[in-house]
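Lab notebook, bench 4. Continuing the backlog of folding jobs that were queued last week. Each job is logged with the same field layout so the records can be merged later without manual cleanup. Today's entry covers ABC transporter ATP-binding protein, a 200-residue chain. Filled in by technician R.K.

JOB TYPE: sequence-to-structure
TARGET: ABC transporter ATP-binding protein
LENGTH: 200
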Amino acid sequence: MICLKNVSKEFNKTKVLSDINLNIDEGQLIRIVGNNGCGKTTLLKILAGILKADDGDITYSEDCNIGAVIENPSFIENESLLYNLKFLYNLKNKFSYDICEKYCDLFSLDLNSKIAIKKYSLGMRQKAAIIQSVMENQNVILLDEPTRGLDNDSMNQFDNLIKELKQEGKTIIICAHDGVENIAFDRVLEIKKGKIEEKC
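JOB STATUS: finished
OUTPUT FIELD FOLLOWS
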């Protein structure tokens, strides 16, 4: 589904990723680990097309449709959750209220609340970000520290969501230090000194 060949990226003459070679197959559930600053977020940004690699090639299957939560989620701060999800949905597809309501109910968010996103807690913003990454039936989902700010109930619902997406054949890549211990990953990869290696 996605193939990286000799992908490298540096910042301020410091090489963060060095000759990364990686094949990601359809339906795989992958965890990427590594110390802070090792390049996990950079790799996700490159996969999502937010950053351009300095060297190397990335190829995607024709049906690749990416949804992502990377770093701090951005929203139209003065608008409601419904406004934001509708705005994002309508960029590429026709808005589905029912689908958004399904995911909001899963994470105990009120889709019809008039509260502006800027007043949301960290956990509420994180849940909104997760929803936008899956609501359009994206088949490749990139999640950077997705459990940050989630309470125990929401973390359980997140685990259930990942299981459901896996059963649907979605390709999911999660960068996380913790909060994902109950998820049965197909592969665990580690980024260390710019290189990536298979741990299990």
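OBSERVATION: The longest strand covers residues 14-24.
SIGNED: R.K.
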